[in-house]
Design goal:
Strand order of the largest sheet: 2-1-3-4-5-10
GO biological process, one term: dTDP-rhamnose biosynthetic process
Number of strands: 12
CATH superfamily of one domain: NAD(P)-binding Rossmann-like Domain
CATH topology of one domain: Rossmann fold
GO molecular function: dTDP-4-dehydrorhamnose reductase activity
CATH class of one domain: Alpha Beta
CATH architecture of one domain: 3-Layer(aba) Sandwich
Strand content: 15-25%
Keywords: NADP, Oxidoreductase
Radius of gyration: 19 Å
Family: Belongs to the dTDP-4-dehydrorhamnose reductase family.
Protein name: dTDP-4-dehydrorhamnose reductase
Oligomer: single chain
Distance between the termini: 49 Å
């Protein structure tokens, strides 16, 4: 039997890189495309590439993720996150491939006080969140075999993320201020990739919330990063209103993993355990 072919967009990003590595380790025929190799906003190019490769599964991790910049560049955010996704969706459906679309906790407004399950009402409060939700709608409208994965606070070895930013700032400053009134779920990219790999072995399609277990504030997350890395630095709590940014963030975006539980998949390990492994495996530059 020939190897399954899997195409990954956003293959140079923090999730895409881990996804490609995992799939290659599992001996799949993997086609990873970064922005330079595949312009997802070009429908003809997308259709040509997907028709030619004819993958069994398409994992669509490419996105416009500049949350603050999106507020002043809504056309760019929607071009990539909505219509770029539409292009991937239509081309994937045409050849009968399964589709994985990576979405975000930013589709919620953050006014809840209990974790959001997959059936909770969406109400994004930023351009980025609205553009990612528009992508979800295109997936639902035009594809028949899809997994929509909402995740949050992703970090890993590749790309820019909060953990790497904190460790870098600690080398430059003796004191940091981090918001303590935004609550969410950190997600280790390696764990996320592993869970997606399990999903695509099945036909249990639908929306899935995938993040590490537990929750914390950015302040608590920062303090734990420094504890695990044995970095001595003063971390002070502050409020979101003290540091206004162009895009509003949901104040509470803890994800409930109902779909994983009800479909017989194991929930991810606790975020502290995952962070401990990340710090240990990749080390900290002094």
């Amino acid at each position: 039997m020939s190897k399954q072919k899997i195409l990954v967009t956003g293959a140079k990003g923090q999730l895409g890189t881990e996804m490609v590595k995992l799939l290659k380790d599992m001996e799949y025929e993997v086609y990873g495309y970064g922005r330079a190799e595949l312009d997802i906003t070009d429908f003809q190019q997308v259709k040509s590439v997907i028709d030619h490769i004819h993958p069994n599964v398409v994992i669509h991790a490419a996105a416009y993720t500049k949350v603050d910049a999106a507020e002043s560049k809504p056309d760019q955010a929607f071009l990539v996150n909505a219509y770029g996704t539409r292009n991937i969706v239509v081309a994937s459906e045409h050849i009968g491939a399964k589709l994985v679309y990576i979405s975000t906790d930013y589709v919620f407004d953050g006014t809840a006080n209990v974790p959001y399950n997959e059936f909770a009402v969406t109400n994004p409060i930023s351009v980025y969140g609205r553009s990612k939700l528009a992508g979800e709608h295109f997936v639902r409208d035009f594809h028949s075999k899809f997994f929509i994965i909402r995740t949050s606070w992703v970090y890993g070895k590749h790309g820019n993320n909060f953990v790497k930013t904190m460790l870098k700032l600690a080398q430059e400053q003796k004191e940091l201020f981090v918001v303590d009134d935004q609550i969410g779920c950190p997600t280790y990219a390696v764990d996320l990739a592993s869970c997606i790999f399990q999903l695509i072995q099945t036909e249990k399609y639908g929306v899935y919330h995938i993040s590490n277990s537990g929750h914390c504030s950015w302040y608590e997350f920062a303090k734990t990063i420094f504890e695990e890395a044995n970095v001595n630095i003063v971390v002070n709590p502050c409020k979101t209103k003290d540091y206004p940014r162009p895009a509003q963030r949901p104040l509470y975006s803890v994800l409930d993993h109902m779909a994983l539980r009800l479909n017989g998949f194991k929930e991810l390990r606790h975020w502290r355990e995952a962070l401990k492994e990340f710090i240990k495996v990749y080390g900290v530059k002094s």
